[in-house]
Structure to design on (431 residues):
């Protein structure tokens, strides 16, 4: 790629402008009769043309050949990547958990290594999301992927990812996340070898920063900490295979040239990365603790105000200082459904059984909370200030119920004894 070094532009939803070759960006006009350096202008719109100005996302790409130059598409098989919920699945209203999935499948890249664990909504209706794990042991070679069904939020858990995109290069490591817009071509390389992580495929409204309300003007994730790539293009000769996901189906087509041939671009639709270490946590400094919504990094709103299509929530290292307060999450039943993963360390409500690379699912009104060990430990712990460190858990939280896939239900990683972690919670009532 040219330039070959990693460079970034900061800000969420900014009007970015970048050129890999000086003079490649036209001045004053988006599509002049003759673009500089004999490039082709191409517009990619991430929202409807008439979306409100503050929500409108689009970018102009100036490329050596337009993306329309490709061969015919033929069906491609990826049976483990599913879209939307299967309405025929009868799911008991009980908690579910999976042990860490083995890293890597022989000769499997990011696309072929995707495994859907649970999904809701419908990609065609542009509602809901799918929660996946990727299990890959090789880089994508002369291969690109385009998802027209939704944007993709990547949460690496083991191994770095090199993301080659139409707008440039991003490097993402565990503890960071990457957001890839709907319709933008990308290729993923694995510099550390076999890799594992989580993906939220969001069919609904684009992720955005949540409103801060009474918190004020500062807190949670800051826009300036999101990084977009600078322009970089590939000029290695040779053809490509393009895999495209559309309407829940997969297609492949040959391309004589690299799809990563954008020499310059400007706009506010771009791949982004974010380091969760920059998240400014908010919490109580007296007693009790607020709802976990205070840990929201990104939100995809629905047509019901305050009720998200999807919230991306993290539980990073933080101080606990509350007095006379049970500090892990309390026992609860929620309207929102929660798919949870663990990137590193230990989750304070589940010191055993919930491990990095695993997952849990608690659907609408399914009771859950600390296991017996966590309850006993927290009930008798000293309430001096305590630092939760070396930990990072997250949730994909949705107004819609998640339906596990056949792969998830039949997996040997499914914890058949998950409910036993609460079996020792006795009736201790003493009138």
């Amino acid at each position: 790629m040219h330039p070959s070094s990693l460079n970034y532009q900061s800000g969420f939803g900014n009007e970015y402008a970048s050129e890999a070759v000086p003079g490649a960006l036209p001045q004053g006009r988006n599509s002049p009769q003759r673009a500089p350096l004999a490039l082709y202008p191409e517009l990619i719109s991430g929202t409807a043309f008439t979306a409100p100005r503050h929500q409108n996302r689009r970018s102009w790409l100036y490329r050596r050949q337009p993306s329309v130059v490709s061969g015919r598409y033929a069906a491609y098989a990826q049976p483990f990547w599913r879209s939307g919920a299967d309405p025929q699945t009868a799911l008991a209203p009980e908690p579910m958990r999976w042990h860490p999935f083995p890293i890597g499948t022989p000769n499997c890249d990011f696309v072929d290594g995707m495994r859907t664990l649970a999904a809701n909504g419908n990609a065609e209706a542009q509602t809901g999301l799918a929660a996946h794990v990727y299990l890959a042991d090789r880089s994508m070679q002369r291969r690109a992927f385009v998802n027209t069904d939704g944007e993709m939020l990547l949460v690496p858990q083991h191994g770095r990812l090199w993301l080659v995109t139409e707008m440039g290069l991003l490097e993402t490591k565990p503890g960071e996340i990457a957001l890839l817009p709907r319709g933008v071509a990308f290729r993923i390389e694995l510099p550390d070898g076999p890799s594992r992580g989580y993906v939220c495929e969001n069919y609904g409204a684009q992720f955005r920063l949540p409103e801060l309300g009474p918190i004020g003007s500062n807190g949670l994730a800051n826009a300036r900490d999101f990084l977009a790539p600078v322009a970089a293009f590939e000029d290695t000769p040779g053809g490509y295979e393009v895999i495209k996901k559309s309407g829940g189906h997969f297609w492949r087509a040959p391309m004589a040239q690299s799809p990563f041939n954008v020499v310059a671009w400007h706009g506010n639709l771009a791949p982004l990365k974010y380091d969760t270490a920059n998240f400014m946590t908010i919490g109580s400094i007296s007693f009790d603790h607020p709802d976990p919504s205070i840990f929201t990094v990104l939100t995809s709103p629905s047509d019901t105000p305050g009720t998200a299509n999807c919230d991306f929530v993290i539980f990073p290292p933080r101080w606990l200082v509350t007095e006379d307060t049970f500090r892990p999450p309390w026992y609860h039943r929620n309207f929102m459904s929660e798919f949870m993963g663990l990137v590193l360390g230990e989750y304070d409500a589940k010191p055993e059984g919930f491990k990095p690379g695993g997952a849990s699912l608690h659907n609408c009104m399914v009771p859950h909370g600390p296991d017996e060990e966590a309850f006993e430990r927290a009930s008798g712990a000293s309430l001096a200030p305590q630092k939760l460190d070396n930990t990072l858990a997250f949730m994909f939280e949705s107004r819609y119920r998640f339906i596990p896939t056949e792969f998830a239900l039949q997996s040997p990683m499914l914890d058949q004894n998950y409910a036993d972690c609460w079996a020792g919670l006795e009736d201790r009532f003493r009138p």
User: Anything to note?
Assistant: The chain has a mean pLDDT of 94. The longest strand covers residues 129-136. The chain is about 5% helix and 35% strand. The helical segments are 372-379, 406-410.
